[in-house]
Structures are given as C-alpha cells and as structure tokens.
Design goal:
The complex is a heterotrimer of chains A (261), B (352) and C (250).
Chain A: H1 8-30, H2 34-42, H3 44-77, H4 80-95, H5 98-109, H6 116-123, H7 131-155, H8 159-167, H9 172-201, H10 204-209, H11 220-230, H12 232-258
Helix pairs in contact in A: 2-12, 3-7, 3-9, 4-7, 7-9, 8-9, 9-12, 11-12
Chain B: E1 7-16, E2 19-28, E3 31-36, H1 43-51, E4 57-62, E5 65-69, E6 74-75, E7 83-86, H2 98-108, H3 114-124, H4 140-153, E8 158-162, H5 170-185, E9 190-195, H6 198-204, E10 207-212, E11 215-220, H7 222-227, H8 232-238, E12 241-253, E13 259-274, E14 279-282, E15 292-304, E16 307-313, E17 318-323, H9 324-330, E18 337-342, E19 347-351
Parallel strand pairs in B: 3-9, 3-10, 7-8, 8-9
Antiparallel strand pairs in B: 1-2, 1-4, 4-5, 5-6, 10-11, 12-13, 13-19, 14-18, 15-16, 15-18, 16-17
Helix pairs in contact in B: 2-3, 2-4, 3-4, 4-5
Chain C: H1 2-15, E1 32-37, H2 41-55, E2 59-64, H3 66-74, E3 81-83, H4 87-95, E4 104-116, E5 136-139, H5 144-156, E6 164-166, H6 169-178, E7 183-187, H7 188-194, E8 197-201, E9 209-216, H8 223-234, H9 236-244
Parallel strand pairs in C: 1-2, 1-3, 5-6, 5-7
Antiparallel strand pairs in C: 3-9, 4-7, 4-8, 4-9
Helix pairs in contact in C: 1-6, 2-9, 3-4
The chains are: A mainly alpha (261), B alpha+beta (352), C alpha/beta (250).
Amino acid sequence: MKRTRVPPAIGLLAGLGLLLFLLPLAGLIIRAPWNQALGELTDPTTTTALGLSIFCSLTATAIALVLGIPLAMILARTTGTLRNILRALTTLPMVLPPVVGGVALLLAFGRRGIAGSLLYQAFGIQIPFTTAAAVMAETFVAMPFLVIAVEAGLRSLDHRYEEAARSLGAGYWRIFTRVTLPLLRPAIFSGAVLCWARALGEFGATITFAGNFPGRTQTVPIAVYLALETKPEAAITLSLILLVVSVAILVGMRDRWLGAL
Amino acid sequence: MAGSTVTLEASVRVRRDGFTLDVELTAAADETVAVLGPNGAGKTTLLRALAGLDEMEGRVVLDGEVLDDSARGVYVPAERRRAGLVFQDHVLFPHLSAVENVAFGLRAQGRPHAAAIARRWLNEAGLGDRADALPRALSGGQAQRVALLRALATEPKLLLLDEPLSSLDVSIRAEVRRELSRQLASFHGVRLLVTHDPLEAMALADKLVVLEHGLVVQSGTPLDVTARPRSRFVADLAGVNLLRGRAYGDHVALPAEALLAAVDAGSGDVFAVVHPRAVALYRSRPDGTPRNVWRGQVDTVDLEGERVRVRVVGPVPLVAEVTRAAVLELGLIAGASVWMAVKATEVSVYPA
Amino acid sequence: MNRVRFAVAALALVAACGQPSTPSSGPAGTTLTVFAAASLQPAFDKIGAKLLSAQNIATTFSYAGTQTLTTQLTQGAPADVFASADVAHMTTIQSAGLLHSQSVLFAHNRLEIAVAKGNPKGIHTLGDLARSGLVLVLADPSVPAGKYAAQALAKAGVTVHPASLEQQVTGVLSKVALGEADAGIVYVSDIVTSGQVDGVVIPDNQNVIADYPIAVLKSAQNQTGAIAFVDFVLGTEGQSILTAAGFQGV
C-alpha cells in the first residue's frame, strides 16, 4: 500500500460528493416495497416497458455505432475551424435540454417538419408516436457520447500503425477493419456503454417526439413518471429494476472489454 | 531474386517549416546504402518520401517503375509501392501475434497459406517458438527482428529501415546488428537504411551517404568517406581531427592566423586531416623537427583504456591521443596549459 | 406563415410542460402561488392580471396536469390555492389533510374534439375517431381530461387506438395544432382559447361534464390573498372571464 497523505479537506469534499450519489440510491433501496416487488415485476406494464426500453436503447446504440464511428473518424481527421464547428454540432445534443431536443426532432421529422413533411407527402410515412421515433429520440441524445469517446480514441492512436499497414500493401478497408477498429475496441466499447446508458434513461425527448403509449413508446422512464402519480410503489419498483439492470451490465462489462491493449 | 538488377533512382526535394531536403541518390540491388547524419538532418523525411508516406517534389524510379514524378503528376500511393518499411521501434500491430504480424502483408497481397509462410520465415530466423506471442511479450530485439521479417515477407523491391537499432538496449545492439547484417545480405532488392549512429552505418553499409541539414555532404564507401572526411560529423566519426583552410604549397593557412605546415598541400580551399595519434603534447615548448607547434589549454581528458584522448583548445584546436602514463606524468588535467606538435608529414591534405 | 405558426405551436408545447408562468410583479410579501389544471391557463392568466391591477395581488401560476399537481402537493410542494379539473383529485388532497377550508366548484367544462383548421380529415362524430389511419391523441387516463374522454367514448360505444397518451390536456391540443395529430379530445375551453384548431361538437348525450373545484390550502403563506383569489374566481368578473374562455359558470 502506498503511503500517501490525502489532505482532510479533499477527503471531506470527496465524502460529500459520495453522499450525493449514495443517499438517493439508498433511499430507493430502503423505501422499496420489497413484499410487493415480485408482483410488480411480473406486472405486464412493467415487463412491457422494460422490454421496450431494452429494445429501443440497444437499437439506438447500434445506430450510434454505425453512424457515429465514421463521424468520429471524420472528426479526428479535420482540423481548425471546420473541426470546431463539427465538434459543436455533434456535442450539441449533450448540452441541449432533452425536451428541446424533442421539439427540434418534431420540427425536423414531424408531419410538418422539414424532412418529415417530405416523407409524409411522398410515402405516407409518419414518424412521431412510433417506436422508431422513440429510437430516434434516444439516438439523438446518446450518440454524442459514442462519437466523443471514439474520436478521443482515434486521436490517441499511433498513426504509424496505419503507415506500417500501408507499407505492407494494405488498402483503406483492410487497414480500417484489421488495424484501426481492433485498436479502437476499448474506446468503442466505453463509448457504446455510455451511449446505451444514456439512451436507456432518456425521457424528455422521447415523450415530446414519440409521445406515450404502452408497448409502443412507453419506455421505463416514462412509465416511472406516470406511475409516480398513480401508483408510487410501481414507480419505485420499476426504478429499482432499471437500476439493477444498469449496474449489472456496467459492472459486467467494465474490466473484460474496457481493458486497454 | 539473386543477381537482380533492381535499382533505385531518386531525386527528392521536401520543403517544410523552414527546412529543405534536397537529395539525389541511386542504389543498386544487393547493396546496402546507409544514409548517415545527425538528428535533424532530414534522414527520416527522406525515408518517408521514398516510402510514399509524405509529399515530395522530384522523381523516384524503382526498378524502372516511376513511383513519383512531381513534374508529370505521377504518384503511386504507399500501399502500391513494393517498398517494405521497418520502423525504429518495430511498430508491430499490438493486437496481433508475431506470426499474424508477419502474415499481414501476405494477406494484403492475397497470398494463400499466409500464416504458414509467415511461420516459415519466423522458424528460419530462429523465432519459431515466439510465433504466437503478442508483441508486448517479445523482447526489444525479438520485436525488431519480427518487424524486419514482416517487411521481408512481402518480398519488396526496396527495403527501407529507419534507425533499426537505435531503440534497442546498447547491450543487445551488437547481436541484433549481426542478425540484421545477415538478413540484409540475403535480401536481394535495394536496401536503404537511415541512421545517426556511425557504428551502425559503418557496420552495415556498402555505400555511405552523409546527410547534413538536408543536403548530401559526402558519399562513397565507408572507407572512402572516413579516409577523406568533408565535415566535422564525418571527422568525428572517423575519429580524426579535421581542419579547413587555404593551401599554399607547403603550408595551409588556418583561421586565427595559424599556419599548418604540410607536404604537397596544393593550392586553394582544402581540408587537412591530422590523426590524434600524430599529435604530441609537451608541458613546455618543444625543441625539435616538428614544424607545427602551438600552445593550447587542456579542455577534456577522455580515458579509453590505455589510450587517452585529450581535447586541447587554442588557436588550433586538436584532439591528441596519448598513453595513460603520459597523462599522469605530464599532469594533464582540464585547464592545464600545454604545447602541441605535429609533424608536417603526418598532415593529409585534400581539396575541399 | 404556416411555418411560423407551426413553430409557435411547438414552443407552446415546450411551455406547456408544467412550467410555472412568470410571476406578475407586486409589492413583496403578497405573491400568491396557485396550482391550476392546465386547461385553466388562459382564463387564470387573465384573472391574475385583473387581480394585480384591481387588488394589487401578485400571482404565480403553476399549470400542469391535475394528477401532476396533486402528486406535487402531497409530496409537500408549497402553494396557496389549488384549482383541480376534477373532484377526485381534490378529494385526494382533502384526504391528505391539506385543505384549509372546504373546496368549492367554480366552473364546468365539456369535451370537444380538436381537429386541424378546416377539418381536412372530415371528422364529425366520436365514431369517426376510430377510423383506421387517423392519428388520434388523448390525455392519459390518469389526467382528468383523459378520464373524461374515456367516459365519453364509452358512452358513444367507440373503441379507439390513440397514438399517444399525453400528460396534460394542453399536450393533446399542441399535437393537433402542430399537425402531428389529426384529432384529439380536449375541453371546449381549450378550443375557444386556442385559435389554432377547429372544434367538432360532441353531442350532450355522449359528452361528459367536468367539474372544477377550487380550494385554499392549509400551507398557504398568504391566506388573505388566497381567499381573495377564490372569491374573485367565484365572483361576477371571474365567472365572466371563465365563460369567455369557454367554461360554463356555476
């Protein structure tokens, strides 16, 4: 064990910070209606919301991977003002209040939206109030986490690996799939986990853009919000379930996949 | 590829941040050309330009194929040149085993049984038992050797090595150098290595090209180059004293109004070489035949076993090589004042 | 021009997410906090302005779905007055012992179908709402308006498939106004004050009468002001403001 002295002030502040995280979680666990929990767990509203949440968040993460990794690659290669502009654009959803994000999505993809109106008039496609809308809302708010993580990973990658691969005759795609992606694995994984966690917890943009309907757009956060007003025990149980699922996956994933090469 | 006639003709110009590289060189097959120069001379720039990784002006022709011709807008990208590259600190793909690293280029070429061929290369080099190890489990020397095999496996026409030994521990350098020398000898394409280590250059090169500040200062066989150094760098390399001045038949006028008596000095701008062994040191002004006698002050004393190199500063700064006994006897320590003497017949003069 | 109206409606949607409106200024110590059902916003904003100019009472309103306000109050949110869109939620507050005095009914409302201007989809009855391909939005059953709408639909014997269940009736209105929904069931008062949608009348035999009670809360910091507010709402001026907004007076 190292013998370092941490100044008391640091310890105190850190302790307060820890309390800020611990107390709410403790409240959740202590006030949970454990005897009713099992009943709540099998309640169709609960299982539907949970299933929908998992489906939407995983789909959103998958989309974020497919679109976000190339975006991160472009970002990592640009410099100067262009890079600052692109960076600001891709991180905007992170700082935008989620409801504002939802409104923006409506204005873009709603039936009267700039893109949505074209889709509606040409193909009769309506995006709001569908599961697709919930997925889009979650992708919108969560993708920046993935992009940032992957971009950071790319910038810290030794560019000589790519040069060595080129000197050995490898073309662009071979380098991308056999060298860049494998070396980016830790960054991609940590980015994907953050993205998935954010998507799972998304509320404001979802309820604004996708609305609320059980089985279609009522994700767990929305279900909790509703239940709080009608059946608080259900709300607490649902919150706990989400907490346990999140913690399980975060802990299970941490070392194995996030370990550096 | 024994007896191949692959040649490299390159005329490379790179301008960057106030630095200009302007080099013309040719290299034939089965010949190791070492580009030697101090750090900042432009060696790596040259290498990267030849590899196709960095922009350059000029023309590069390898085995009759034009790889680069800025005048005509011809440029073959790095991945299509048959030029293998070995980096200073191996740069093996960290997520692939040794055999996978060596097989990488083969797979890129679409060769079947790439892994088997790669394994054969490793076995022949005595690294068969490390074939499945990851780079981080290899020693520095092993990793560098695997990096060389990785480049050789693709059977390139040109092999480029960037300071191949400089990242290795001094204690294993000699052994890896011998390996490298052997491996290079059996590679029949054009071999070009860059280095700042004179020992590396002298040991591996068939032809030496000295690069300083982006320009070629000297080229020739190692022996030629060191016999007639044309720069301080090469002189230090050869371990001789290099002076420059104007010759007037029987003497050379040096800076600081000193005169160096020599034999058949010719006329015009010249280099004058004096071997440290030819410099004698005295505590008082000597009386004798040497025509060249100067005062000076001891700057540093470097012990190299029984031979000691004494650096003397003064109007004619020289390094003298004397015995350890002599150093003790004369009490030669830094700051001590001495007299130097050099026989005119020991001075070798050649045009600058 | 359409775009501008659309954008305005969208911003209204954001504002309708239960945010308190900015308080009218007044002398310190007399600011009143009123929790009111979302459907009351246009009428109560006017009442608040009148109270300020006439009696110098400043009011801060918190508009949201009645169920949201009820939860907030039972969790201890401080307020002086509570105006609910149904009796059930007021009863919850009463059972929680939060009332200062008995609640009083101050208005009634009826339901109406909201459609886009010009009724492009040709909706004329509750039965039309069951048409396939129609995007219908209702308030969640936990909201009074949603509960009433379910009652009306049951009376009419119509089964619908809503696209979304909103948290407050103004959310339903916004979605129709934005053009995202073809129709929604809202209050008559919502359509009267909106101006951005058209209404389709629901016949009396299918319609539901919503009862709005109001009460002064025990936790009222400003009891005199609270009583004055309730009196104004029940008085002639308050009632005429409410009827002008589409409500039926008591």
